[in-house]
Structure formats: C-alpha cells, structure tokens
From TrEMBL:
GO cellular component: MKS complex
Name of this protein: TECT1 protein
InterPro entries noted in UniProt: TCTN1-3, TCTN1-3_dom, TCTN1-3_N
An individual GO BP term: protein localization to ciliary transition zone
PANTHER family from the UniProt entry: TECTONIC FAMILY MEMBER (PTHR14611), TECTONIC-1 (PTHR14611:SF1)
Pfam families (UniProt xref): DUF1619_N, TCTN_DUF1619
Subunit and interaction comment: Part of the tectonic-like complex (also named B9 complex).
Name of the coding gene: Tctn1
Tectonic-1-3 domain: residues covered: 159-318, 328-515
The entry's keywords: Cilium biogenesis/degradation, Glycoprotein, Signal
Family: Belongs to the tectonic family.
Domain Tectonic-1-3 N-terminal: from-to ranges: 15-122
Length: 543
C-alpha cells in the first residue's frame, strides 16, 4: 500500500505529455503560402513582414482549455526595436479551476470514429451495451501510466484526416492538375477524402515519349501509399483496369490488367501513353488506407501532336459500405437526380435512412402506347431544377372494379415504393438525420358528374410534386439546398358506367421546382452625392 501511494503521488506530480503542439497552431492563418496581416503565428510571415505589423490579432494560442496544465504560445510585438520585431514565448499555463482534466489518457476520445448504425441484426447488442443509465469503455483503456501511453511522438497524427495529403514512401500521391495555365503540374497532392477530377495539357514529343515519366503507368503506381501518416505499413497501388483508346477515340477494355504497358514508338506513333488515371482509395472509419487501385486509359500519340490532354480523378470509399451516387457536393447540381429514401421502421429514435432501389425520387414515365395499365412500373428520375410532366390514358369500362382500379392508379402515379424523405443536399449521408426533408403528402378531391352512370367511384388522376429550394452559403459560390417537398394527389369521383359504354380519362404526373431564396441585401450603403464644381487643374498632372 505504501508503494502504491507513492506511485500514485508521483503520477499526479508528473504532467502528461502534450497531445497538441501549440507552437504549430495558428487560427488566423487563412491564406495558403501567404502571410496574413497581423497574424503573428503565421509560419509564412518573415521578419520583414513582422516589422510592418501593428498588433498581434491572436496574442495567445492554447490547446484544450479544460486541461489542468498545458503549454501556451504567447505572441507580441517589440515596437521599440528598429525595425519592430515579433516576440514568441512558450509558457506553462495552469488552470485555476478545481474541475480540470489532468491526463487525456482515453485514446478513443482523441479522434472521431463513426458510430455504428443500428440495424435489426445488431440492435439488441447495442441496446445491452448503451441502453443503461451509464456506460464506459474497457477498464484497460483507463491506465493511468501516462509515461507508457505517451511516447516521444505521441503528439503526431497516426491517422489520416480530411484534406491531409495522402503520403507515399517518397513524397505524396500526385494528382496532376492545371495551376496558373492549363499545363499540367505534378506538384498537386491528393487530399484524403477529397474527391477530385482534373484535366490539364501535357507537352509531348513522340521522339522522346518513352523517356517522359508522366506518360508511363509506372509514374502513377511505383510508389506505395502509407496506410497512416509517418508509418512503415505500405499499401501497394494495384492496376484495376486498362482501357486502350485509338486515334479516332474508340476505346477497348483489355481482358488482363496484370501486364504493364509502357510507352514506346511504333510506326511513327507513341503508343501506350497515359491519357487518364482514375484512383480509387478504400479506407477504414478510423482514417487508415487499406486498398488503392488505379484504372488507366492508354492511347496513341501521332508525331504531329505537340501536346495531349490528360484527365485524372480520385475517389474514396469506406470499407464495408456501398458507394452512394451523389448529386452534388454539397449543393445539388442542376440535371442530377433528387436523392430520396425511407426512415427505418421499428426504432425508438431516428437512426438514419434507407435508400430506395435507386436512391432517387421518381415519377411516371410516359410510354409510346400511352396506356396507363401497360405503363405500370416505368419510372423516370426527378432531375434537380428541371420542371417535368408526364402522363398516360386510362380506358374505363363497365367491367372494372372500383377498389382495384384505384390501387392500380395510385401505384402508377407513386410507384411501388414512394419515398418518405428527400436529401436536402446532394451529398447528404444516411446517418445525418437532420439533412433529410420529409415529403408532405396532400389529397385534393374533384367532382365529375355524369347523368348516365349509376354508382360512384373515387380514383386518383394526378400527382403533383413541388420542390422548394434555396441558395445556401456564400454569395460567391451559393449551394442549392432543398427545404420543402410537397406531393399532392388529386382524385376525382366517377360513377359506374352502364353496360357496353367506355370512358377515357388522362392521368398526369408533374414536378415543379421553386426558388424561394430571399434576394441578397447589399452590405454597403450608397455614398452621398456632393454637387460641387472642382477647379480645372484639380487632378493635374493627371487627366
């Protein structure tokens, strides 16, 4: 007991290793590779820049304010020096509160992990684990031995975060792109979870095509990717597919992608030159890359060509998940489908959304025969921003029963699985419950009177969908966001036809998009007009 008490006191006296290096934090560093005015912590600023500062916009930079003891970076200006200089100090800051955190030794709290989505299979297990009044982690994760849990590099990031360049064994994964002009620059790194698609122009010479690295497949797959930053675990880039493009643009998919095809000169042409690369990266929910694949488009270059256009693309997919087609990032793009889905049934809380077969909002698709009974099941996706109308004709006879006819028409108008929600953004995820807008369903009845009929029947004849959207975000780059969706079913009352008579009625579906964005208000007021006459030489010597 005595030894245990001494060990506990020793641990209490020793401060834990810092998780965040405050000397590298800078919240006012907004410009990339440029010095921000009065930002004393900006690493892009030089001594000449500091001499022009009037004050430090962020004088103190700290990490977590709830820690009992932590490092603080203090910035100030020595205005008496000639020229003025920046002063940097790293001090120990003590939290006066008695309710503070002594050691951040819960490793799972140091990064964001996607929660497990409840399903009918795992619901009972999750209920047993988290259904009580309290729950905690495994006892082993609460080890108070901070020295063992904080090696010298404990403040380094050992998982990829959004936007962090994907590292390779020699540098980073290249995604060539145009920088200033349309010419390709190989200095553009691929950011983690940042889906990109670029096109650029590459100067070529057929006589030297076998020595131009950017035209070879090896240039894009010869460096292995680091599974996590600054680790020794490597992930090789495999060749997923190879497509060969002829001079006239015809493409052919090769049966085997195991053999590398290197550029070479044949009959005055440079063949097997890389025209396009499509990377696909698979990662875990904790930010670790586990697979990397590349699909190539190879082509031939004629000796008259002085340059070629190359296209590059990269996409990321989390393991054990199916890629969901997006309709924008984040706002909707005009012409792409409106995404839709359902809320899972049987849960006491909103756990997420299940997409329908195509994850899209659909309407009745017109057919050449215009027969409603034959058009059952034919659907067309609702494209964002496009007002649409479609329909068919229904031939009613005296032999038709009312109830089956009404159910069939409702199925023709709404489909077999009409969604309950639509995504407010083009990239809304199923687990983000607040990013889904419920569809409000209304019913309107119309009366149709016929003196030659005997008994009445009410059937749906029209479905009208109104999608209200608004511009969201910056005025420079506004994003389209759906804020309300209303589906209105219009029914009409028919009377039973007498024997031997027929009636044809039209059935219609329509979609209308309405922009409800409020007009932007100017952030300035007009300058007042001063009605005076200036001297004739007021602007001399300028005109």
């Amino acid at each position: 007991p005595a030894d245990t008490s001494d060990a506990s006191q020793a641990r209490a006296r020793s401060a834990p290793a810092p998780v965040t290096d405050v000397s590298k934090l800078c919240v006012c560093d907004l410009l990339v590779a440029q010095c921000d005015a009065n930002c004393c912590c900006d690493p892009d600023c030089s001594a000449d820049d500091f001499s022009l500062f009037t004050t430090c916009s962020v004088p103190v930079v700290t990490g977590d304010s709830q820690l009992c003891r932590q490092k603080a970076a203090v910035y100030s200006l020595d205005v008496e020096a000639n020229p003025p200089e920046r002063i940097f100090k790293l001090i120990d800051q003590v939290n006066p509160s008695i309710f503070c955190i002594h050691a951040t030794n819960y490793k799972q709290a140091l990064y964001l992990k996607s929660p497990e989505i409840p399903t009918p299979e795992n619901f009972d297990r999750l209920l047993d684990k988290f259904g009580g009044a309290t729950f905690s982690a495994e006892p082993d994760s609460w080890n108070l031995d901070t020295d063992a849990q904080n090696p010298p590099d404990a403040n380094e990031t050992y998982r990829y975060e959004y936007g962090v360049p994907v590292q390779t064994e020699d540098a980073f994964l290249r995604l060539p792109s145009p920088v200033v002009s349309s010419w390709c620059s190989d200095a553009n790194p691929a950011g983690f979870l940042v889906n990109q698609a670029t096109k650029c122009i590459r100067p070529v010479s057929v006589e030297k095509c076998d020595s131009i690295q950017a035209l070879s497949m090896l240039f894009y797959i010869n460096s292995s990717i680091l599974a996590v930053p600054k680790s020794s675990q490597m992930v090789n880039i495999t060749v997923q597919s190879i497509v060969v493009q002829s001079l006239n643009g015809m493409r052919t998919l090769l049966n085997s992608s195991d053999v590398l095809r290197l550029p070479m000169i044949l009959d005055g042409l440079c063949i097997n030159a890389v025209l396009g690369v499509n990377y696909h990266i698979t990662h875990t929910d904790t930010g670790e890359i586990i697979e990397a694949a590349a699909a190539f488009v190879l082509g031939a270059i004629s000796k008259e060509a002085l340059s070629i256009e190359q296209s590059f693309e990269i996409s990321f997919t989390q393991e054990n998940t199916q890629p969901v087609p997006l309709s924008g990032n984040p706002g909707y793009v005009v012409g792409l489908p409106v995404r839709a889905g359902f809320r899972p049934q049987g849960y006491p809380f909103p756990a997420g959304f299940l997409s329908n077969k195509h994850s899209q909002l659909t309407i009745l698709q017109s057919t050449s025969t215009q027969d409603c009974l034959a058009a059952q099941g034919a659907r067309a996706p609702v494209l964002f921003g496009y007002n649409m109308i479609s329909g068919c004709k229904l031939r009613i006879t005296a032999a038709m029963k009312c109830q089956p006819l009404a159910e069939t028409l409702l199925d023709v108008l709404k489909g077999q699985s009409f969604p309950e929600y639509v995504a407010s953004f083009g990239n809304s995820q199923a687990q983000d419950v607040l990013d889904w807008v419920p569809i409000t369903q209304l019913h309107i009845s119309e009366q149709m009177i016929s003196t030659t009929l005997q008994s009445s029947c009410q059937i749906p004849v029209a479905l009208g969908i109104e999608v209200k959207w608004a511009k969201y975000g910056s005025l420079v780059n506004p994003q389209a966001r759906i804020v309300n969706v209303t589906a209105t079913i219009t029914t009409t009352t028919l009377k039973q036809l007498s024997s031997g008579r027929e009636k044809i009625i039209p059935i219609t579906s329509s979609v209308v998009f309405t922009d409800i964005s409020s007009p932007a208000e100017p952030s300035y007021k007009a300058w007042p007009t001063i009605n005076i006459k200036l001297p004739f030489d007021f602007f001399y010597p300028f005109v």
